[in-house]
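Worked example 3 (structure in, sequence out).
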């Protein structure tokens, strides 16, 4: 239990806060505002989904440096592809949470939980790709 709690705290503080601030309240809001400025009568749905989908691809690709720390049955390129797909899907979930609550705390906590689960159950290892 202490190991799980320490991982949760580490990933919530390390990745959760930084990535949520950068992607959610940074890029996603910037893309939304740019889209809104270029549209005559914007409706709320595209203003949420278009930036969320665009940023989800960027978020997924930012995880290309993540590698398995245990032997997996997947080839390295398969593991990276799966991780990118999972990160992209998770981003959409975080975006929905952010759009519904208009707060960063819920997606930050969920992000920490997801990263903790990925490391403990899937043998993931978080590597900064830059």
């Amino acid at each position: 239990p202490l190991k799980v709690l320490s991982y949760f705290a580490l990933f919530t503080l390390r990745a959760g806060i930084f990535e949520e601030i950068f992607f959610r309240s940074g890029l996603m809001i910037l893309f939304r505002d740019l889209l809104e400025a270029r549209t005559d009568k914007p409706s709320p749905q595209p203003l949420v989904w278009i930036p969320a989908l665009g940023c989800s691809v960027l978020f997924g690709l930012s995880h290309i440096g993540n590698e398995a720390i245990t032997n997996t049955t997947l080839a390295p390129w398969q593991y990276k592809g799966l991780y990118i797909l999972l990160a992209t899907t998770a981003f959409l979930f975080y975006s929905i949470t952010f759009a519904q609550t208009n707060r960063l705390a819920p997606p930050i906590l969920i992000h920490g939980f997801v990263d903790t689960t990925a490391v403990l159950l899937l043998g993931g290892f978080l590597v900064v790709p830059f």
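Notes: DSSP finds four helices and two strands in the chain. The first strand starts at residue 67 and ends at 68.
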